[in-house]
Design brief:
Blueprint (H helix, E strand, L loop, with lengths): L1 H19 L5 E6 L5 E3 L5 E3 L4 H13 L2 E7 L21 H14 L6 E2 H7 L4 E6 L13 H12 L4 E4 L13 H9 L15 E2 L4 H8 L11 H8 L2 E2 L9 E4 L2 E4 L5 H16 L3
Parallel strand pairs: 1-4, 1-6, 4-5, 6-7, 7-11, 8-9
Antiparallel strand pairs: 2-3, 10-11
Length: 283
């Protein structure tokens, strides 16, 4: 395994060197959670993070398409992978592909490479051609209620720049409303209050479905999530679209591209790159 990882890293260095000799098409901002402990009902919590394939598969495709990537978290810390996602089942059953994508992720999140959200907003997000938000349950901890995430999303929305999110990543879209923290509390309390001034109101979109979330929740030994994300998105005003559980599903509406579950990674990457290429005049 070590020799395989060394070979993968060597090939990535060669690819990076070759790519550096040509001008990139554009810079993509990759937004991830700073947190790892998801609150559950009853005061319990679940250790989580980002899903390896949901970050790495689109990242690898974007790099191969000559885009550069800049990772950002709210606090500027390195995000943590959900250990359950480091599994060949998320890579077509291919352990070598899992190692390859793991090397891509390591290269992306290397020392000093992750910016804070405040840094990105202070320097201006105008430089970025698109925004990508991977999943895993971690975005439910902080991204959905962070006003600075809302500020970032408004930039991409107002400027019609491609915005892609996969699995639980779309929950971050809820930050772009008048009171995201208040909305989250209303959802947890089971109230029917909709989102106020949500920029994605009426958009067609998808997220990890209720059926898929129920299967995941069933693996928690009786513990319960505070809320199901698909219900929260519908309550906010999203026009939710779903395919059968565990099948690839991508929904495109204007600048927004959303993927339903971990197995939507390749399809989401293709749709995102097509939208970016169209915007950049490269496709």
């Amino acid at each position: 395994m070590k020799n395989t990882l060394k070979a993968v890293l060597a090939s990535l260095l060669l690819a990076t060197s070759a790519a550096a000799s040509a001008a990139p098409k554009g810079e993509i901002l990759v937004l991830l959670s700073s947190e790892t402990e998801l609150p559950l009902q009853g005061g319990k919590s679940l250790t989580t993070g980002f899903y390896q394939n949901e970050l790495g598969v689109p990242a690898a495709a974007l790099l191969e398409a000559d885009y550069t990537l800049t990772p950002v978290t709210p606090r500027g810390n390195r995000p943590v992978v959900d250990k359950h996602s480091v599994d060949p089942q998320y890579f077509g059953g291919n352990p070598q592909e899992m190692v390859r994508i793991g090397a891509v992720v390591e290269g992306l999140l290397g020392a000093g490479k992750v910016l804070s959200l405040r840094e990105v907003l202070a320097s201006g997000p105008e430089r970025y051609a698109g925004l990508f938000i991977p999943g895993g349950h971690a975005p439910l901890i902080d991204l959905a209620k962070d006003p600075e995430v809302g500020t970032l999303l408004r930039h991409f929305h107002d400027n019609h720049k491609p915005t892609a999110a996969i699995c639980h990543g779309p929950i971050a879209l809820l930050a772009a409303q008048a009171d995201p923290a208040g909305f989250e509390q209303s959802v947890i309390a089971g109230k029917a209050d909709g989102a106020r001034e949500w920029i994605y109101d009426g958009y067609r979109m998808t997220i990890f479905s209720d059926k898929e979330e129920a299967v995941f929740e069933g693996s928690l030994g009786g513990d319960k999530l505070r809320y199901y994300p698909a219900k929260a998105m519908a309550q906010a005003g999203g026009s939710m679209q779903f395919v059968a559980p565990w099948q690839p599903g991508v929904v495109i509406d204007r600048e927004l591209i959303t993927g339903q579950n971990p197995f939507s990674d390749h399809a989401l990457a293709s749709a995102f790159i097509a939208a970016l290429d169209k915007q950049q005049g490269a496709g």
